[in-house]
Amino acid sequence: xxxxxxxxxxxxxxxxxxxxxxxxxxxxxxxxxxxxxxxxxxxxxxxxxxxxxxxxxxxxxxxxxxxxxxxxxxxxxxxxxxxxxxxxxxxxxxxxxxxxxxxxxxxxxxxxxxxxxxxxxxxxxxxxxxxxxxxxxxxxxxxxxxxxxxxxxxxxxxxxxxxxxxxxxxxxxxxxxxxxxxxxxxxxxxx
Length: 191
Description:
There is one protein chain. With 191 residues, this protein is mainly α. The protein has one domain. 79% of the residues lie in helices and 0% in strands. Helix 2 (14-34) runs parallel beside helix 5 and helix 4 (52-81) packs antiparallel against helix 7 (152-172). The radius of gyration is 16 Å and the shape is globular. The mean pLDDT is 90.
């Protein structure tokens, strides 16, 4: 995943940038499918602990609203205070490629990142960190570190969103509402 980020940084063409982004994410998911023990954890079915409408209202809509209200302002303010930390930026995508990226690409981003940084990281670190505040902080730091190229402002926002997403996952014990929330937050940010 990080290798695809490194290759992607050198891309000036939007199509090439998206190709390397999707390739890294699909490659990571393919590795999880290929390893039986990883496949069992990564793609397990989970039952919601609360009725779906409550999880949708409380988690999905709440997270999307928080991201919409604070993401750009907080990220921009931090980047202005600490300039020069952005190593790359998301390409300006136009036309049908933009529509494809918003519908398919952002769904891939949300699914991949939630599998890796919520489900797998939680499961891998639980024996050492438990399932409390330290788990939430460490998995959120990992999630933020994955966004290393996007500037300290975005890294900070991603860390805070990671905390909220992990708390939601711990509460619901089901990943699908968290994937939906992540997807809708990204759509809100990119539209």
